[in-house]
UniProtKB/TrEMBL annotation:
Gene3D superfamilies given in the database record: bsu32300-like (1.20.120.580)
Organism: Quadrisphaera granulorum
Gene Ontology cellular component annotations, sorted alphabetically: toxin-antitoxin complex
Keywords, ordered alphabetically: Hydrolase, Nuclease, Toxin-antitoxin system
PANTHER family the UniProt entry points to: RNASE YUTE-RELATED (PTHR33397:SF5), UPF0331 PROTEIN YUTE (PTHR33397)
Keyword Ligase appears in the UniProt entry: no
Coiled-coil region: none
Pfam annotation, one family: HepT-like
Record-given protein name: Uncharacterized protein YutE (UPF0331/DUF86 family)
């Protein structure tokens, strides 16, 4: 069985959405736990953007990986690791994305107990990760397609 074909337009559309999320996180400005506690709509928006960054990164990695492997991984971390193996990501970004997956899981599955100071501290890293992800995967697409 051959892997499905890579759809560069789909990948580029997801990368464009990630770039928009970086802009949106920039527009939020500085956040801390107290601000997120006081501004519930902001908190919900930030939490959603943080989860979207991870979900889009994993979706892109899964697509890229499935176009190169017969038996691609089925977990979030597995998709990141496989994209690292394909050199679509560098080690530093893969490590950071693995941590972001943990934050995403907390927000999605156990959000009532999320420490808002930790959520706020994740915002600058999410900005940096999403921007780096767009750069690295775009470069990989140019090399591979």
């Amino acid at each position: 069985m051959t892997p499905p074909r890579l759809d560069p337009l789909s990948v580029q559309a997801k990368l464009a959405l990630m770039a928009e999320l970086v802009e949106d996180l920039d527009a939020v400005g500085a956040v801390d736990g107290a601000r997120l506690h006081q501004e519930r709509l902001l908190r919900r928006a930030v939490e959603r953007m943080l989860t979207q960054v991870v979900d889009l990164a994993v979706s892109v990695c899964s697509h890229v990986v499935s176009s190169r492997m017969v038996n691609p991984p089925t977990t979030y971390r597995g998709a990141i690791d496989a994209a690292l193996t394909l050199k679509a990501l560098d080690e530093e970004l893969a490590t950071s994305l693995r941590r972001a997956i943990g934050m995403r899981n907390l927000l999605v599955h156990d959000y009532a107990r999320a420490d808002l100071d930790i959520v706020a501290a994740a915002v600058p890293q999410a900005r940096a990760d999403a921007a780096a992800f767009v750069r690295q995967v775009s470069a990989w697409l140019l090399r591979e397609h």
